[in-house]
Design goal:
Blueprint (H helix, E strand, L loop, with lengths): L1 H9 L2 E9 L2 E9 L6 E8 L3 E8 H13 L2 H7 L10 E6 L7
Antiparallel strand pairs: 1-2, 1-5, 2-3, 3-4
């Protein structure tokens, strides 16, 4: 997880989480804002709500990475009162030019 923050901070890459739930998916992307890596641009896409963009401090991005990495796919869908998701959640680091943006 720390390696991901370092890569996103020092390379022209972004971290992407795609979460699948029954009948719904969300996509969250993080890209370092500036050269120091203390702020991250966060783009969140929800099938139902569309795109939302915010700036997140490094600590918040780190905490969200930990949540995503430690979350069990079955636990997240069970909490929502749904069945098992049809597709597994995905995490990938991609070049910034390949990220989807609003």
């Amino acid at each position: 997880m720390e390696c991901t923050l370092v890569e996103v901070t020092h390379e022209a890459v972004g971290a992407v989480f795609i979460a699948h739930q029954v009948g719904r998916s969300t996509r969250t992307q993080y890209v370092a804002a500036g050269d120091v890596g203390e702020q991250f641009q966060k783009w969140h896409f929800d099938d139902r709500l569309g795109w939302h963009e915010t700036t997140a401090p490094r600590r918040m991005a780190r905490d969200e990475f930990i949540t995503q990495f430690t979350r069990s796919p079955s636990t997240s869908t069970e909490r929502a009162g749904e069945g098992v998701a049809s597709e597994p959640d995905i995490f990938v680091v991609k070049p910034v030019r390949e990220l989807r943006t609003p």
